[in-house]
Write a structure and sequence with these properties.
With 268 residues, the chain is mainly alpha-helical. It has one domain. The protein contains 11 helices and no strands. α1 packs across α6 and α6 crosses α7. It is elongated, with a radius of gyration of 21 Å. It comes from Listeria booriae. Keywords: Cell membrane, Membrane, Transmembrane, Transmembrane helix, Transport. One of its GO terms (molecular function) is ABC-type transporter activity. InterPro entries: ABC2_TM, ABC2_TM_bact-type, ABC_2_transport, Nod_factor_ABC_transporter. This is Transport permease protein.
Length: 268
């Protein structure tokens, strides 16, 4: 009798877990279908990295590194990271829009896990990061950049960058729950992206900055991510920057994700 009861509990847990994942994937599919019907939502991860890559490379390559070819190892990781950080704000923007339009009120009446809409949104945005990475790296490759460590290490560098962007998306999801409009998130994300990107090693070598700015740039998480990408793609080794990026990303998820889920549960 007791054995049968335990089997029933195990089966119920497996069923509940399967149902949870199914709900999350359904919500993720919903968000992807919205992109399908509104392709303009992908402009920030398709056209923008191309424009920034071409513009920065040919405008500043000669001034900063002497020629375009010497500047590519700096600018390609920089534009990629800038694009990923910027696109991660879409999680908060979409979350805020769904709350403002009353979509979550309809979700309450559905027999789905309450966390599914949030988890599905965060999951579906991974596709945006993959697209941003493809266009950023692809544009750099067409211009003349090559990963010196080979494409295997380039793949590792891209996965690390996407994971970092996914971790940052939890911050913007929390912001989306706290602010009152999607426009506010867009403004904040632009300001945060510009500050983090330009006060880092994304566009210029840190040694060229004034001493007091070097201190800020050295502790900037974006610097660690950009340098980690360079270490993996160009040198093929796991440096302290790679470990720092992993640690920072995991800490963000461990701290921000539970807070976001808790506030989200109260909001809906």
């Amino acid at each position: 009798m007791e054995l049968t009861y335990k089997k029933e509990i195990v089966y119920q847990k497996k069923t509940n877990l399967r149902s949870l994942f199914n709900d999350i994937f359904v919500m993720a599919k919903r968000d992807l279908l919205k992109i399908k019907h509104s392709p303009d939502k992908l402009m920030d991860v398709t056209l923008m990295p191309i424009l920034f890559m071409v513009m920065f490379t040919f405008l500043f390559g000669g001034a900063i590194s002497g020629d375009v070819a010497s500047y590519l190892p700096i600018i390609v990781p920089g534009i990629l990271v800038q694009t990923l950080v910027s696109s991660s704000s879409a999680t908060g923007t979409q979350l805020r829009e769904d709350m403002d339009t009353g979509v979550f009120d309809r979700f309450k009446s559905l027999p789905i896990a309450r966390i599914a809409p949030l988890a599905g949104l965060v999951l579906s945005d991974v596709l945006r990061y993959v697209i941003a990475t493809f266009f950023s790296i692809g544009t750099g490759y067409l211009i003349g950049w090559r990963p010196e460590a080979g494409f295997g290490w380039l793949l590792v560098a891209c996965v690390l960058s996407i994971f970092a962007a996914w971790a940052i998306s939890w911050i913007f999801a929390l912001v989306g729950l706290m602010v009152r409009s999607a426009a506010t998130i867009s403004g904040l994300s632009m300001m945060i992206t510009m500050v983090l990107s330009f006060l880092s090693s994304a566009f210029v070598p840190i040694k060229t900055l004034p001493t007091w700015l070097q201190g800020i740039a050295n502790v900037n998480p974006v610097t660690h991510l950009v340098d980690a990408f360079k270490d993996l793609a160009n040198h093929g080794h796991l440096s302290m920057n790679v470990l720092a990026t992993l640690l920072i990303s995991c800490v963000i998820v461990a701290i921000i994700a539970p807070i976001t889920v808790k506030i989200y549960s109260k909001k809906i």
